Amino acid sequence: MKITRDLYQGSLALLTDFYQLTMAYAYWKSGKAEQEAVFNLFFRKNPFQSGFTIAAGLDYVIDYCRNFKFDENDLSYLGAMEKEDGTPTFDPAFIQYLRELTFSCDIDAVEEGSVIFPNTPMIRVKGPLLQCQLLETPMLNIINFQTLVATKAARITLEAKGDPVLEFGLRRAQGIDGALAASRASYIGGCSSTSNVMAGKLFGIPVSGTHAHSWIMAFDSEIAAFEAYAAAFPDNCIFLVDTYDTIKGVQNAIKVGHALKANGKKLLGVRIDSGDLAYYSNMARELLDEAGFTDTKVVASNDLDEHILSSLKMQEASIDIWGIGTKLVTAYDQPALGAVYKMAALKDEQGNWVPKVKVSQQSIKINIPGFHNVKRFYKNDKAISDMIYLESNEELAEELTIIDPYDPTKRRKINPNDMESKDLLVPIFKKGKKVYSRPKLEDIRNSTLTNLRRFDKAHKRLINPHIYPVGLEEGLYHLRTDLVLKAKNYS
Q1: Burial 231-262 (b: 16+ CB within 10 A, else e)
Q2: Which domains are present in the chain?
Q3: For residue 373, what are the β-bridge partners?
Q4: Do the bridges between strand 382-390 and strand 470-473 make them parallel or antiparallel, or are there none, so unpaired?
Q5: What is the pTM for the complete model shown?
Q6: Coiled-coil intervals in this record (predicted)?
Q7: Contact at 8 Å (CB) between 204 and 441?
């Protein structure tokens, strides 16, 4: 499914920052537009003080790149731009260059549903400098948000410990785009369904939902509302029981449940959306069990997140299904991931790759130079360490030293012959042609759950998670250090 086409029905080439276009023009003017470059998209810190991050958004990136072009409306808009002196901002010959532009980059990326960590490349782009530059803003826009929400969803579903988590944040999401992307990312992160019907249609996510308080208020009594709903949907009866009095609401649900049972149907559940969820869920469970409705589920909602869910689990709340809205789809406690897109290498006139480094007073902002990949090592089916290494090093040493990029005293010895390993970056496009078989969204969700199981519990705990070791292969570490010293004129 062409997601961006389905949503927007046209070119998205102008979904970018203006300075990307001014740089593209300047590259063209200076004769550098076709010079080959490598850029990496990565983030510097796990979100939510988490011990891990879940990759999401690649499918949108694939659609964007497959359909990348400037249409005539785009070109007319750019051609009409003027500088302060009234002359065109862009030379007509540059507009013609954009008209003939065909996407021709190589893209390698971490697959959606992968567990990833700071500084490792999520996406590597190689191709003409002008094209690489124009991809920066849209890629960051896509990856930053979906990865953030997928990570939030994974944290919530881990705390649910196998209970279904329903995403229903549409009404509180950040606009139409945010709602659709959040529903998709939430499913990747482990949610079971969404309330967003359009997301269900576009992405094939299971949809769920019953009724709101307004349904109850539209009738003369709560039990009449339950009866009418049961008549309309006898196979989907989950009653919202806290419109007036939660305990009486559960009792009324039980009365209608007996009528359903007499007709060969089931009372599937009761939902509590306010108040002391631990207390009322336990009361509801007691009443349901006493009435013989031991299979009826208790559903809870009301501004939940992973921390509240964890607390309710510790209180032994009798909650079987969790409805999560606002704090999931808005990534409530951290509004942005902060992923960046940095040049890592540039090909010179002799055809050699020249590694590039950005120097900063903040060591965390010094990028990793060169054409590199990330290799994950496993032992006894558990992930033990990630190594960022130069792909030019075709044969790795029998014993590897992995060095923390910001603290050289943190080192780890790896014997690659004693364990399994895999490269996380996989080919997506070669010279502009898609070479990647896109998995189904359900398979991506299953991959997330499988991948998380391969990490120690210490990396997945909510509070003060153990830091998963990610480092630079020793040669790459020294290259980076030398380039930084050279850039600072210390050598």
Answers
A1: eeeeebbbbbbbbeebeebbbbbbebbeebee
A2: 209-318 (3.20.20.70)
A3: 389
A4: parallel
A5: 0.95
A6: none
A7: yes
